[in-house]
Amino acid sequence: MILQGENILKQYHHKGEMINALDHVSFKVNKGDFVTVTGPSGSGKSTLLLALFGLIRLTSGNIIFDGKRIDNISDRQLTEIRKKSVGYILQSFALIPYLTTIQNVMIPLALEKVPGKEQVKRAREILEYVGLSDRMEHLPREISAGQQQRIAIARSIIHRPQIIMADEPTGNLDPTLSLEILEFLKKINRENKITIIMVTHSPVAAEYGTMKLHLNEGKIMESGK
Amino acid sequence: MTILKLVLIELWKRKSQLITGLLAITLGIAVIIAIQSVSVVSERNVARNLDNLGANILVLPQGASIDDYYTSDIDAPTLPMDYVERILTSTIAGVDNMSPKLTRRVKVGDQSVVLTGILPKSEIASKPLWQSSGLLGAELKTTCAPNQSANKSHGLEDDKLKRKAIDTLNSKDCLAGSQVAKKLRLSTNGRINIMGKEFNVVKILPETGTVDDDRIFANLHDVQQLLGIENQVSAIEIMGCCNAISEGLLGQLRNILPDTRITTIGQIVSTQIETNQLMKKVTLIMLIIIFFVGGISIGNYIWANVNERKREIGILRMMGAKRSIIYKMFLLKALILGVGGGFLGYLLGTFAGVILGPYLAGIVVKPVYIYLLWSVLFSVAISLAGSLFPTYLAAKFDPHTNLQED
Predict the structure, then answer these.
(1) Per-domain residue ranges of chain B
(2) In terms of CB atoms within 10 Å, which of A41, B215, B224, B398 comes out highest?
């Protein structure tokens, strides 16, 4: 098991009312799982994704990653875990607009202070892997949405994380490109044994999961493989 | 890829913002450098002039003005030479040396020149350039003449600045100022006829930048005889002890010479010194204003940059960038702006000083290289101080808040 959530509670105050964004959620994820998290808007899917590695702090509950509790450690330690072990893919690609493809992909390595030559070597390899070796010096605005998402995927795996957190990775793409990205995530999951937790609205994307969680009003309504 | 490279790329890709950010700090530094460059040269000039003047007290006939003394008109009033004796026989302390002078504008050929009669043994030849021309005599016995440390305070460390007297100036010999020598085409060991009397030009004096350049100096007794003004002088230059002047030497002199006008040459220069001090105060005030205005301007620029890059900050924090990385990103940017602004400000300010100095202040301004270090340090301090608060706020952003803007 790589990740476990126990009784996760996240409450917000909204207009004087207490809202349970996550209402005592529990789950277990094994290494190499491809987890899809579905549910209607406002069900708590993205909150769960952000809460797992400290981007949002929990009200109560435990999160265990790689055998260690991480819900009660410092921001600094959580940042270190995100840097070394987690890759993020967002719906809007989250690329830095003034950096080229290769420069965007190298950022996680720069944060880990990997030497420059090693950064370039690994970035070239990974861009070849995602089929963008001919777009290395392009700026994000100069390439298509599908290609931008592939850059984001390359960036999320370049530092060899244990787990990828994907928040609606196909939300901005047409059906053909969506399938291309989903196939790509599946490939990464199988070939590199990287665990993926993917939040999605799409029933087609949800079918890619080897484990499925369905949330409604902050509660897990359905969990299965 | 490094954080520094990330900062440099961001700066380069947003050039227009970079120029705006640099402009305020560059102009601020440039103004200070320009003022400071002009005033430092002005101060050095004043110090040099003080040393060139040598004497610091001027005894003039009653009703004569400083202008009369300098223009040396034919009808300029005179005072009896006995007054030198009167001072010598008094018990007044602090009079180190006296140099009586008779000065008149005379015609040499068709040129008008100023003829000055001096007593060689007592003529104060403290003018550094005179001394370097080989007119060194015995050192005058002074109670408080400028010493080396005093010279150093004027930025002049030349050991020759000790006050010395001209040894001899024989009858029929004269010294010619550089300008008058040019005008009359005189050369050393040449001859000149003044009012029917032949003089040997024993020395062409080097250029001093003072009225001396337009004068011919001859023995006082010869000049008195030549002009028909026996036992009269135009002025007595006194080298007075600085401490004695401040303790009332002028008043004591006025008591024994009631029908004279006694002034300190220092008063003339002190006006210029006061102006320089005023310039220093203005520079300090501007420095404070520029520190705040520049700091606020840079702070505003960095804050706008932080807001523009909220998502980027969120992305970096999500990927594992510590708060220290965010500090590093923005403070490095501020440091680069500070170094750039300081460097450009120095160049612009120095250029303005060099170009405008001769027009505005009538002085030749040269670059003061040490100001480059100070302007960069000051500019970096402004830039970092202005950027600190926006950077602190940027580092405190919750990553998810900015990512939710997606």
Answers:
(1) 3-47+272-403, 63-258
(2) B215
